[in-house]
What does this fold into?
Amino acid sequence: LAKTTQPISMDSYEGQEVNITCSHNNIATNDYITWYQQFPSQGPRFIIQGYKTKVTNEVASLFIPADRKSSTLSLPRVSLSDTAVYYCLVGDVYRGDYKLSFGAGTTVTVRA
Amino acid sequence: GAVVSQHPSRVICKSGTSVKIECRSLDFQATTMFWYRQFPKQSLMLMATSNEGSKATYEQGVEKDKFLINHASLTLSTLTVTSAHPEDSSFYICSAISRVGNVGYTFGSGTRLTVV
It folds into this structure.
């Protein structure tokens, strides 16, 4: 499984854009990049997944450079309710024996 | 979207007793289910992987006789913490996927276990 490195914590204010960069230097050809959000005492919630270039959905954007050795999750105009831990995971999610393994995650704190 | 239901959401038990946690995939057939444990301020730690109808595969350091996993059907997996002790107090989370239809990792809401 590709090892990921992301900042331990980030602070922001309401209405700002938050960008979290994840490094995954040994990403494999078949690996996808997936981001999850977790609130205290809840299970992780899927945010976005991508393979290359840019992916956008209703809650976030995911930017992946050509070498795929890093990725950036972008949360536009955050609110207090976006305060959570964000996990970056890399792996071949379509492989039969794939197991999702979590790193330390990034604690994002949004202040008023 | 895919939904995974986990029950109970919280349980308190006495030391030495056993506790069962259920994980159900409500709208898809889960070919594989995973069980995680999360201590306060820490990340999720994978405990075991279970495929329907076969024995669970445990991660290194996880006692299979203490954490019994049963995946008897495509929609239900259970985790039984046997002879629970205070150090087993933690947040337990299940996840399910389906290779059929490529249903991605969907997590339950977690179970807060407190052993007193």
In short: Chain B is about 0% helix and 55% strand. The radius of gyration of chain B is 13 Å.
